């Protein structure tokens, strides 16, 4: 199957899934009170993440705008899965604050990556490939839509309790570590420390991974004072952390070096985040518990 045909099939699958998602979540503003633009962004991110995840995990050449190392491609798939699962959680149990947090995470992930791609790495893109135009179109639509929704002003929910001290401490500590690691990887992607900087020969792929580290840190920082948002952030980090472990273990299965620090660090992040999520009272994330 040619690359153009692969791209066409992917677009058809995405449109069909979007139609099904709109049938479930697209009618009316919902509990979050968002606009149709916001609802489109939420659904497109959730559905696109869930559909794209297996393609990127399998490192299929026609599925992304530049050639990724296999481990980076799997980690991209895991990031997509985290956005997809978290997006579904927001759509199933919407609130103004949870939707707002999700728009911020979209911007935190895509804006630095887009700026780096355009101003530092445009030579990595082949504009004869349809997936290149698809990549930039998706980035523009999601970023503009998220920014427009955030610009509508802060919709106020009822006051909600803060998470417990253990959760707040974890969100602060892990957030600081991820913020420093992600910022360093993004700003100095060629640093000669392979345990921390896994692709010094591929600056754009390093920055792709760094953007997700910073995004998880943003989720942690913004959710420290709200139990509902903390649940969402822990879910986001838990899915990504366990997924990165699986991605790293695939290297070992394939006889390739395993990124031990990534596997260990994100294993801790994933397990602790999911453990804290399970231990929070009212684990089900409802609009009344999410502000």
TrEMBL record:
* Record has DNA-binding as a keyword: no
Q: Which UniProt keywords are given for this protein, alphabetically ordered?
A: Membrane, Transmembrane, Transmembrane helix
Q: Which residues cross the membrane?
A: 6-25, 37-58, 70-90, 102-120, 132-150, 170-192, 204-222, 234-254, 260-278
Annotated protein name in UniProt: Uncharacterized protein
**Organism for this UniProt entry:** Mesorhizobium alhagi CCNWXJ12-2
């Amino acid at each position: 199957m040619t690359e153009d045909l692969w791209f066409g099939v992917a677009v058809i699958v995405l449109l069909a899934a979007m139609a099904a998602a709109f049938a479930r979540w697209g009618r009316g503003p919902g509990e979050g009170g968002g606009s149709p633009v916001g609802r489109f962004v939420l659904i497109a991110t959730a559905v696109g993440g869930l559909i794209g995840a297996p393609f990127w995990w399998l490192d299929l050449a026609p599925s992304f705008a530049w050639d990724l190392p296999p481990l980076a491609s799997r980690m991209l798939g895991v990031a997509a899965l985290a956005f997809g699962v978290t997006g579904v959680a927001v759509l199933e149990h919407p609130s103004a604050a949870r939707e707002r947090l999700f728009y911020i995470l979209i911007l935190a992930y895509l804006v630095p990556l887009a700026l780096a791609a355009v101003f530092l790495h445009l030579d990595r893109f082949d504009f004869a490939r349809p997936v290149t135009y698809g990549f930039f179109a998706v980035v523009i639509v999601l970023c503009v839509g998220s920014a427009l929704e955030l610009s509508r002003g802060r919709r106020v929910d009822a006051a909600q309790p803060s998470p417990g001290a253990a959760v707040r401490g974890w969100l602060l500590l892990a957030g600081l570590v991820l913020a420093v690691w992600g910022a360093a990887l993004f700003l100095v992607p060629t640093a000669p420390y392979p345990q921390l900087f896994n692709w010094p020969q591929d600056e754009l792929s390093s920055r792709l991974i760094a953007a997700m580290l910073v995004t998880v840190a943003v989720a942690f920082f913004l959710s420290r004072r709200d139990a509902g948002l903390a649940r969402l952030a822990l879910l986001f980090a838990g899915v990504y952390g366990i997924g990165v472990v699986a991605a790293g273990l695939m290297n070992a299965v394939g006889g390739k070096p395993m990124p031990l620090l990534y596997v260990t660090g994100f294993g801790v992040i994933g397990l602790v985040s999911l453990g804290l999520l399970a231990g929070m009272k009212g684990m089900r994330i409802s609009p009344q518990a999410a502000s």
